[in-house]
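Q: Now give one record:
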Amino acid sequence: IVELQAGAVYSGQINLPNKPLTDYVTIQSSAVADLPADKRVSPSQRSSMATILSGMLGRAAIAATNGAHHYRFVGIEFAPSSSSYNYGIIQLGKGETRADKVPHDIEIDRSYIRPHPSGKTRRGIALNSANTTIKNSYIEGIAYPSEETQGICGWSGSKNIKILNNYIEGGAENIMFGGADPASADLIPSDIEIRGNHLNKPLAWKKKVTTKTLFELKNAKRVVFAGNLLTNNWEGSALRVTVRNQDDGAPFSTIEDVNIRDNVIRGSGEGINILGKDDTYASQTL
């Protein structure tokens, strides 16, 4: 356990190394006992969290590459350190071309992710890792005009993913899998469970930021999307299940075995958009 002082600020990108670990290294706030287990946190609990700020020039706060594994964060606030354009506050994986090289066994629990007040952040979490859980956390403010933003997005190597009991804001998409071409079919996002989350776009964003949908699949296998609350997508569909070979580099792109059930949708411009096959580039059929 690495304990960070609640209320303290730690600056500079933290790179998670690939070590021969068999159990988790846990990085947690010294006041984690004030954040009850299995309860979703909110920004009002920041005083019980330690803060990790990103590195300079838009770098991530946390970066895990090259097979890093067995890291857990509990009770941490993550944010950019400056107004520089930030591609992802947390980056789990970055361009691995083999499934056995992606980061894995990573957990983020009871944490708060936010953008810089005067900067632009593309994503809260770039989720290109395996055996990864995001739970009981709060992601807000990831939205800007003329910018494709996501609260959580994974497109390569995302496997055995659990997104549970979070509050998530995102401009274009709150949660998306796909959207860029993985190097091979082995890296298609797969075995994904998304339950008990609140996906929301604040009404204050209306006509001020780019919005598309609340949940989107473009390239994914074996997905369960159940028991979620989806609110305030005033234009466009609440859900998009649309096969996309995004940049014509992945004709193996597909969507297979998706179970969507027991969700509540309120305040959406449209319902569900389903596209069986990419209408721009070659793809497989949903």
In short: DSSP finds no helices and 25 strands in the chain. The mean pLDDT is 97. Residues 48 and 113 are 14 Å apart (CA to CA).
